[in-house]
Amino acid sequence: MLAAFVSLKERIILFKLPGWLSQEGGNAETFDRSFVLLGFAMYIIGLVMVASSSMPVAERMFNDPFHFVTRHMIYIVLSMGVAAITLQIPMAWWHKYSSTLLLFGLVLLVVVLFIGRTVNGSTRWIAIGPITIQAAEPAKLFFFCYLSAYLVRRRDEVMENWRGFAKPLVVFGLLAFLLLRQPDLGTIIVMFVTTFGLLFLAGAKLWQFISIAGVGLTAIGALAYFSPYRWARVTGFLDPWKDPFGSGYQLTQSLMAYGRGEAFGQGLGNSIQKLDYLPEAHTDFVMAVLAEEFGFFGISVVLLLSMILVIKALMLGRKAVRKEKFFEGFFAYAIGIWMCFQAGVNIGASAGIVPTKGLTMPLISYGGSSMIIMTISLAILIRIDHELRLQSLQATSAGGRK
Question: Which domain holds residue 181?
Answer without folding.
Answer: 2-21+30-401
